[in-house]
Each structure stands twice: as C-alpha cells, then as structure tokens.
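Private note to self, pasted from the team thread so I don't lose it. Backbone tokens:
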C-alpha cells in the first residue's frame, strides 16, 4: 500500500516533483516514436506551472507520466520522494487517488449522479464513512462556490459550473498536486477566467497546480511557463507578473449561468 512506502528523498531539495533524464519511446509497429527526450525538471510545493507546446511536442505524454497514467522508458520521477517508476499497478492507483487531483477539459462527470455524488467518487476507494464522504464533498463544493447546487445534476449546470464540480472532485482527497489538462478548452472567455480565478485562489492557499494549455492568455495566469517542443523542454521561465483573474474579469461581459445551463 502507498502509505507504507517511505519517501527516500523527500525534502532533500524542497521539490515536490523531481524528474531526471526522462525518456518515453512508443513503438508503433517497427517505428520508434520518441515522445520525450531526456527531460529534467523540478517543481516545488506551492508552484503554479503552465505546460505549453504544439500538438506532438510531448506535453501530453509528460502530463500522463506526472499523473502516474504512464511510465517512462528511461529516467526517474520522484513524487514527494517516492520513485514512481518502481511502483506496482496497485501502488500507482493509490498514488493517483491520494496524491493527485485531476481536472479534464471534458469535465468527466457522471451524468446520472448529482454534483455531490460526483465529488464523493474518489472517497469510495478508501475507508471513509458515508457521513464523512458527504461532509468532505460538500466542503469541496462550497470551496468552489457551488454550495447551493450540490444536488444538481450535470445537465442542470452550465459548463463553468460543471468544471467547478470537477475541480471540487480533484480537491476532495486533499491531494499534493492538481493536474489540469486544458481545463478551459470547452469554456467561453469569461468562464475560463472564472475557472483560472479558482485555480489562483487554490494556489494562493498552498496547492500546487500544473496546467496544460495551448492558450497563451490562459498561461498568463500561471507563475511559471514550461514550453515543450520535439520532446524536450525548450523554455522554462518565471512569469513575474501573472494576470490576476479577479481583476481581468471586471472587464468581461456577464454571462447568465442559468441561461447557459438551459
């Protein structure tokens, strides 16, 4: 079980994520496709990082490995000092459930379950009682501003509200990191900024966020930009003046959530 694994290098350099010489090669018939070519990078606790790059640049493969959905061909990945590459399938599943929160472009909500029940789902994989599940799920929904819609179904919510449910679900297990894959890809401009505002608030409260986006204006809300091209990191820079969502949104037109959800 994951909780029995002792982090061997946790705290040695303050990094939440330590990646060294990461390589990923896919075999398509007789052809080797090099998705990642010797990537090395560290991410510290509390960072807000935007991962960027064109299609085929390696950013999606990189995020899959970060999320323990895939393993590298070579190289090492330490998450809180745990060598992810040495874990079994069951241990990887436990890491995904306990240490990583996922937010996807398509929301990935169950259509026939309420917002509360959708957020409860990750808690079913542990010993949490029914009462505690409901309390934690309700608190997570309140945290993203949906405390008054916990019993609504996805088809009764706007796109922005559905993404808030997805963010609440990613928070419910108190993860070490949130991985967001194009979280604003299906949203209008104002709602995208609202979602980025939620991420900024969570980050200001100490949650580490790594976000994949192909939209430069969305990346501007993050504090660090990492750009992939041809399987390598081509740029890694601090964004010294990130946009503040709560300020940006003041200049955007209002959108009626009820009308959008209808």
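Design output:
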């Amino acid at each position: 079980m994951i909780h029995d694994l002792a982090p061997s290098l946790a705290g040695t350099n303050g990094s939440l994520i330590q990646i060294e010489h990461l390589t990923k090669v896919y075999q398509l018939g007789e052809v080797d496709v090099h998705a990642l070519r010797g990537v090395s990078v560290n991410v510290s606790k509390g960072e807000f990082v935007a991962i960027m790059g064109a299609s085929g640049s390696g950013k999606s493969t990189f995020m899959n490995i970060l999320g323990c959905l895939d393993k590298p061909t070579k190289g090492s990945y330490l998450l809180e000092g745990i060598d992810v590459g040495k874990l079994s399938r069951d241990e990887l599943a436990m890491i995904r459930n306990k240490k990583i929160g996922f937010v996807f472009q398509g929301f990935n909500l169950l259509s026939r379950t309420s917002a509360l029940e959708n957020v409860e789902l990750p808690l079913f994989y542990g010993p949490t009682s029914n009462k505690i599940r409901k309390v934690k799920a309700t608190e997570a929904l309140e945290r993203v501003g949906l405390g008054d819609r916990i019993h609504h179904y996805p088809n009764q919510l706007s796109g922005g509200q559905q993404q808030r449910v997805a963010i609440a679900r990613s928070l419910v297990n108190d993860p070490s990191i949130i991985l967001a894959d194009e979280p604003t890809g299906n949203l209008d401009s104002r709602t995208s900024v609202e979602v980025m505002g939620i991420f900024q608030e969570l980050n200001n409260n100490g949650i580490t966020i790594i976000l994949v986006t192909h939209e430069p204006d969305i990346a501007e809300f993050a504090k660090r930009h990492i750009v992939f091209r041809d399987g390598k990191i081509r740029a890694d820079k601090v964004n010294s003046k990130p946009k503040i969502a709560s300020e940006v949104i003041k200049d955007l037109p209002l959108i009626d959530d009820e009308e959008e959800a209808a």
